[in-house]
Each structure stands twice: as C-alpha cells, then as structure tokens.
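Comment thread on ticket #2218

A.B. wrote:
> Attaching the input chain for the structure job we discussed in standup.
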Amino acid sequence: MRLRMDTSVSSRRAANSGLKGLRPLRRGGAAGGRLHDEIYAALRQALIVGELIPGQVFPIRTLAERFGTSLIPVRDALKRLVAERALLMLANRTVCIPKMTRARFQELLQVRLSLETKLAHRASELIRQEDILELESINESMQAAARKGNVKAYLVANHAFHFRLYSVTNSLVMLPIVESLWMQVGPFLNGVFTAAGTKNAHDNHEQILKALRRRDPVAVADAVSSDLVDAADVILARKDFMFDED
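C.D. wrote:
> Ran it. Output below, let me know if you need it in another format.
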C-alpha cells in the first residue's frame, strides 16, 4: 500500500490507518528533548514488529498529530531512524518505509545469521530455568496466533521470543545492531505474512527450546540459524510482488 503525499482529508485518513499501533504520548511523561526519545522508541517498536509495510509514506505533520506533539521532536526521532536505514526521508516533510529488494534482503539475512547465532550461543550458556519457562510461554502465544491467523500477534510474539533469548546475554554491541536489522526487515515481513497468512508458517522455536533445556550452545545456535534460513527460503521462493526491483 502506498499513500499519497498530499494533505487532503483522504490522505490523512490513509496515513493514520497505517499508524494504528502508535498512541499519543502521555502528558507530563517526558519533557523537552526527551520527547523525541519516546517517539523514536514507539516508531522503532512499530517497525520491528511489522506494524508498517514497505512503501507507506507519512507526512511528518501526520505523525506529530498522532503522537500529540509538535513537529520538532518527531523530526528529531525520524532523523535517527533515517540514519539507521529504517526509514527514508522524502521531500515535503514526508517519510517513507523503504521497499525491499532481494539483494538487500539476502544481505540482511547474512548479517543476522552471523550476529543472532552468536547471541543465541552465548545466551544458552547463561540462561536460567525461569528464562526458558518464559520463552515457552511466548512460544505458546505465537503458535496460538499462527493458528488464528493473527499476523500482528504472531510477529509481536516472534520478536518477543528472539529478543527475550538474546537479552540474556546483556550484549551492549551486538544486540543494538540486531535490533536495527529487525527494524529494516520488520515492515517487509508484515507485508509477506499479511499476504500469505500464518496458518502455514513454520518455525524452529521448539528446536531452540529443546536445545536450551539440554544446555547445548551449538544446537541452540544451529536452531536459530535454521529458523532464519527456513523463513528466508520460503520468502525468496516467492515470485510475486513481494520484492521491489533490484
């Protein structure tokens, strides 16, 4: 879905329909320069869990109205996301969710495989039983969402599962990079699952959990790798509109 870059009523309604997951900031919560941090965090989360799709265009004023703030903190937050390649800044005070090409998707996959398997390996050496129980609960929620065909809940739970595992490492370097990569691929996955549904979605989360219970770092890393690769293979096999032209 691509939104018109004008200020008509229909355009504003279309833009707002793509921002349903964003909520106005609570008055008195943050002040001054802190506002842009809250806006950045909200947009970042929306990108990671796939609440937006490639090609969507939003006027900065529309985002400011959605958050209930002035233009300045919104613009500052967007500049950070543009620098992280999660958004593109266009003319006339608009931002765009970048389209995805096969080459870009494949490069993102290779970097994710390198970093996420390392995080998974390290996490398996540090993980506690209560962490595993929480991962099991998240996975149950994800499988329930898949059976119901609830794309948003499925993507939210998938993100929660991976980052709950990776957070065990307390990584100060790799984890922020992985979060940036998920921001770049999240909107594309939203588009894929919205079009294809979740009923036939397959994952390797149960294999990850089994390896964690055995405290087998190599098997955990291999299962995470399979999780990423299997999903990518299904996506790359598609020959429809999912990818923009390279």
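A.B. wrote:
> Thanks. Noting for the ticket: Residues 102-126 form the longest helix (25 residues).
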